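As described in the Methods, two query proteins were run sequentially through the folding procedure within a single session, without resetting any intermediate state between them. The first query and its resulting structure tokens are shown here.
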Amino acid sequence: MRDGYIFGLMLRTRSNIIQKVEKLPEEKRNVIPEGFNNSIHWQIGHLLTVTNLIAFQFAGKESVIPESYKTFFGNGTKPSDWTEEPPAWDALIEELTQQCKLIEDTFSGKLQEPLTMKENFAKAETVDEALFVNINHENSHLGMISAMLKVLG
């Protein structure tokens, strides 16, 4: 897959997510709408955390986010289980904004490289396959975020 194509697709998806949530009033960021398990705050932290896993850790790179993010935003977590303050909204938005550039800078010209984490839930074998899985994951959460925003009004 061409670098420009996959990095552009990744950036468009991420930009769409950020555009949808960045103006959400503070009092609605941690509300869990009826019928949902998580808040928008959790959604954006989850995207940052899972992208870190899929893009960097699958490829054998060091994590670029704090380890504590997994306890807040990893698979199976939810805000009702939080026992301390999660990472700040503004910090998460900033990290989401920078993460795509960091991925592009790290993997430009290396999309066909094999992943070092051969056993992964995505069954991905190369960097481009992992990034493609991540884009699909983000689009799934974009739909969830859109639905949550409608319910939140």
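Immediately afterward, the second query was submitted; its sequence and tokens are:
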Amino acid sequence: MLVIAGYAIVLFSVFGGFAMEGGHLAALFQPVELLMIGGAALGAFMVGNSPKAISATLKALPSVLKSSRYTKELYLELMSLLYDLLQKARRDGLMAIEGDIESPEHSAIFGNYKGIMEDQHLLDFITDYLRLMISGKMDAFQIENLMDNELETHHHEGEVPVHTLAKMGDGMPAFGIVAAVMGVVNTMGHIGVPPAELGHLIAAALVGTFLGILLSYGFVGPLSSLLEQKLHESTKMLQCVKVTLIASLNGYAPAIAVEFGRKVLFSTERPSFLELESHVKQTK
């Protein structure tokens, strides 16, 4: 919703301001200029990216229209889930949670946290490292190093749509100049026409530069920035799991381990100590 509202403000501010100055909006309607800029940008996007990068970008685009799912409530769910699992493992031994992590869809513990179950990547991250902890063949340092490598891979994959859109946006002003130059060339070919018609041709050429800059900084560039912010949010979720599990491996009690995880969250979504404690007790 914010994306649509932002686009509406951009359009109203630019075109509304132009109209308030006495400009004729019809002069800005140049579909051929849009075809040259959009077509060139799309072609360059296809040339400069692998099929995997193109696919990742297309899959990421719908997410910009959705609000963030990483809310305080979801973080409370995550930390309550980790607390329940670690508490059971501490009370009954690590092998007691083997059934839960092998079949989370049939687990009574996981079944209490529908928000976590909907995120397959997060669910796999939790169960994979709990499985390694159960094996007992890796120490805390080795598991932490493996987690860091996976987080780095996750971040690099998530940056692909960010970079592809950023590069496309960066190129649009240049394609706007190309469209403007083509318009000037066309105008020079009609140098003998009446001044009124010549002015129309020059205006059409200048619109190319205007559209290239507007599309870059008003439409495509902000999408890249938004996807980057969503990537940081998804990575923060995994970092919370990492810190909590490593604290548990180092011998801290479940209540202290989830406190470690709480501390790494962004302040805008981080629950207070009392909120987390109250939520855990309510879940129990």
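The chain has one domain: 30-283. We note this only descriptively and draw no conclusion about the first query from it.
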